[in-house]
Amino acid sequence: MKKVHVQTTVNGEETEFLCEPRQSLLEVLRDVVGYTGTKEGCLTGDCGACSVILDGRPTDSCLVLGVEAEGKDITTVEGLADGDTLHPLQKKFLEHAALQCGICTPGFLVTSKALLDRNPNPTEHEIRYALAGNLCRCTGYDKIVRAVQDAAAEMQGR
Amino acid sequence: MHELNYEAPTSLDQAISVLAAAGENGRMLAGGTDLIIQMRAGVRQPGQVIDAKKIPELQALSFDAQSGLQLGAARACCEIIADATVQQHYPGLAEAAALIGSDQILARASVGGNVCNGSPAADTTPALIALGAVCQIAGPNGTREVAVEDFVTAPGQTVLAPNELLVAFQIPAPQGQVSDCYQRFIPRNEMDIAVVGVGSCVALDGDTCTTARIGLGAVAARPLLAKEAGDSLVGKTLDDAAIEAAAQLAQQAASPISDMRGTAEFRTHLVGVLTRRTLKEAAARARAR
Prior knowledge:
By secondary structure, chain A is of the alpha+beta class. Chain A has helices at 25-33, 88-95, 105-118, 124-130, 142-155, and strands at 4-10, 13-19, 51-54, 57-60, 73-75. The longest helix of chain B is centred in the C-terminal third of the chain and has 24 residues, at 264-287.
């Protein structure tokens, strides 16, 4: 199958790749561009493990074709930290032990970042709804919600 | 996933040409939240996928006090539910669109895609039926219009010919005291498929109902307009007796099946409950306008 040339921005860097039209953005990010932080989970848009931020919105990259990324701005979990300095969300996930096996964590971090970008001071209810598209089978969610609340507080200087 | 070609036309004419060339092999791609899953499962295997999102007419979201809302078929739900005009004039549509899935899904999914996917349990279809929305369809022979209640013909099937696409919905402008409401039953807070969904829209003149439309989801092979139920309210005060009579007519219009989400008996019960609740809420909203 003929490959298509796609130009996009990933984590602030102009990126170009060749992909088959049938390849998902998830597949392209992991296997072509090399951002393996984004995880494959259900491949049906239920679990959120493959979440990335696409033009400011949290999106399941398993439900986007790589070719649809033309001209888009993408943030993966690799785009959260600033060099060796973790993003407050990453720091708080560690402090609150908001992960066990870790497979869902990149998706939760990316979705939480998209939430805080839009709503820097969310209520617990808003956090739980915003994270409803991310499944975690280890933590019971409570530690994740506390970590997001704490990160929001720190980012607000509270 | 099977091999496919991808085109992203930037005009309606281009899209119609690509669709015509593809014949039975073409499929429009809006948000992809149904189609990509179906392609991965091998349920649909279009050789030509045509991205609908770069066509201006399919991204319309504009309101006119006379002609109403022009809603492009590929417009993402996250933008529809955040739109102040939609929230003000079509709160039931906003409610239905907000229920389609998680934030990740709402970022991509469209109302047009929800309807074209043809699920009997689609949330936005009963809401659109209640509003009297019309589907604007384009093809090589020009355009045509089909009422939303006539658009889906069977599970996964619509009136669209292989060379036609859904361009937009035209939703009438509310004139006077008109409002709508959509509710569904699921056994949890969100992230589920409707066991039953009901959309109601009522117009009032003082205390008297002048028109009422009730759309039903997940209670037949396709979403339904419960016409007799809505018509029964015309000329009446929307008191408990009138609403109960309409709810019973809506139950008679439903022909649900029993499946893992609920029995036919339970679904029929839910039609009554949700018809009453959505009529009362739509009426309260109409009075407040």
